[in-house]
Design a protein that fits this description.
By secondary structure, the protein is of the alpha/beta class. 43% of the residues lie in helices and 19% in strands. Strands 2-1-3-4 form a 4-stranded parallel β-sheet, sandwiched between helices. The two termini are 25 Å apart. The model has no long low-confidence stretch (mean pLDDT 90).
């Protein structure tokens, strides 16, 4: 069970199709706020989280994902990576 959080529809579609083809249940949402709503009915085993999102950004939401889904690893992705972002994501 994978939750994809990315505001780019093409990215959501691509990741969802790739993982679904491999037998995974995938839910994709366009914002952190949508993710919070989805967690009420979908308990992910893995979260794929974009850094740049409308509303709350992915790095700001990371501690809350860790609290709400403590057993689920969070994979942070971005098209705009730099060293400070990577260090923050690992923190």
């Amino acid at each position: 069970r994978v939750l994809v959080v990315d505001d780019e529809a093409a990215v959501c579609w691509s990741v969802k199709e790739l993982l679904a083809d491999r037998g995974h249940a995938v839910e994709a949402v366009g914002s952190v706020e949508e993710a919070w709503d989805r967690l009420s009915s979908f308990a992910p085993d893995v979260v794929v989280l974009d850094v740049r999102l409308p509303g709350m950004d992915g790095l700001s939401a990371l501690p809350e994902f860790r609290r709400r889904c403590p057993a689920a690893p969070v994979i942070v992705m971005t098209a705009f990576g730099d060293l400070p972002t990577a260090v923050t994501a690992l923190g």
